[in-house]
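can u do me a favor
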């Protein structure tokens, strides 16, 4: 089992190249074996606690699952990244993944960046012709109220550049560019870009800065965040610096991520596929086929309102509880005791009322015959 490498991943913040490489190159976690109740009982105390520890880690990291949302985003990203291999003097298209929190932006982008990293290293080798470490992806996550200088510094942090502590914004920017060039970075992902200080006065400054990166860095710039469109990243002429903003907008392709919906048959089928995929991954002795997809479909939809983040939180916590208490399966009673995030809880009550009156269902027609 590759578990020996997995636990370390828990400590990674992915803000340095070493962490990023460890993440991108780690083998996939392997699923602990599914044991029956009888087999569970037969385990020694030591073996049992080891097994449960493995299951805790597994259930806490059940993903990424290849949802339609993730697959669509990946297709679009491959199109854009692969069409950006023109020669260095042509400015490359940028991408903005813009959607509400908890819809899987970070997860999907990381999964893509990981595949991209692996493909590039496999094709071109771990070192550049000049003998530098090849880093196809540079990825930084922003935190509260980041200014332009902090952004540049975080790029230097990623590369472990010795000049990351002293200098001006411009110097930091130049050093970051040097790193990007020598490591032959092809994809620059800036996650949680909404944290960039974006006040009216500095909106143009931000926009200019991103444009500078898009123009000078020979990379596909991948911006990820919430409400980026509202901040004027794509719009034209919303401020006095309209022309500047317009230029950022024109070369930026905006990609969204949608929640699951149950308004039509296609949506209900996607939801069911998601639940079936989750069922298959769970390592609980008393699980049975249909435990989620048949018995808990409406319930899980109401509690998550189709948001993958809320769904995964609920499933993760539910599985932890099922292992800890010995329930070894998920049902309404157990999940009722599990807390979810506040936004999901608020939306839940309204939706549950509709589902109970049968005005709504989360289940596709083909699976309803089996309903209780
Ligand atoms: N494709 C997926 N498979 C499994 N879990 C996912 C998937 N996408 C998102 N999640 C879960 O949902 C949560 C929120 O996702 P995240 O990528 O952080 O969303 P965002 O960046 O849009 O806020 C994460 O904790 C992650 O575990
Ligand atoms: Mg995120």
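np, heres the sequence
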């Amino acid at each position: 089992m590759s578990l020996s490498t997995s636990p370390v991943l828990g400590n990674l913040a992915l803000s340095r190249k070493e962490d990023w490489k460890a993440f991108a190159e780690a083998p996939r976690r392997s699923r602990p074996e599914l044991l029956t109740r009888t087999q569970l009982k037969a385990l020694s105390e030591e073996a049992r606690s080891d097994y449960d520890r493995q299951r805790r880690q597994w259930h806490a990291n059940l993903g990424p699952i290849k949802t339609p949302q993730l697959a669509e985003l990946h297709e679009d990203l491959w199109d854009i990244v692969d069409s950006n291999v023109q020669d260095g003097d042509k400015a490359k298209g940028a991408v903005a993944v813009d959607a509400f929190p908890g819809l899987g932006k970070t997860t999907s982008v990381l999964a893509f960046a990981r595949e991209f990293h692996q493909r590039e290293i496999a094709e071109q080798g771990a070192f550049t012709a000049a003998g530098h470490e090849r880093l196809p992806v540079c990825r930084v996550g922003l935190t509260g109220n980041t200014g332009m200088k902090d952004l540049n510094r975080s790029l230097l942090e990623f590369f472990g550049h010795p000049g990351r502590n002293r200098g001006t914004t411009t110097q930091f920017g130049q050093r970051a560019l040097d790193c990007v060039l020598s490591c032959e970075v092809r994809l620059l992902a800036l996650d949680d870009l909404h944290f960039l200080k974006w006040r009216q006065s500095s909106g143009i400054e931000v926009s200019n800065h991103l444009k500078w990166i898009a123009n000078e860095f020979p990379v596909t710039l991948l911006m990820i965040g919430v409400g980026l469109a509202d901040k004027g990243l794509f719009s034209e002429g919303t401020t006095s610096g309209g022309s500047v903003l317009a230029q950022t907008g024109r070369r930026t392709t905006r990609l969204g991520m949608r929640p699951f919906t149950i308004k039509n048959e296609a949506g209900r089928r996607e939801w069911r596929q998601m639940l079936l995929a989750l069922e298959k991954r769970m390592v609980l002795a008393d699980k049975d086929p249909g435990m989620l997809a048949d018995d808990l479909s409406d319930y899980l939809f109401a509690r998550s309102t189709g948001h993958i983040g809320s769904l995964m939180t609920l499933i993760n916590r539910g599985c932890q509880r099922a292992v800890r208490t010995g329930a070894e399966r998920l049902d309404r009673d157990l999940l009722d005791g599990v807390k979810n995030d506040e936004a999901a809880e608020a939306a839940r009550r309204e939706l549950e009322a509709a589902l109970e009156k049968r005005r709504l269902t989360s289940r596709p027609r083909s699976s309803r015959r089996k309903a209780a």
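The domain at 68-255 is CATH 3.40.50.300 (Rossmann fold). hope that helps!!
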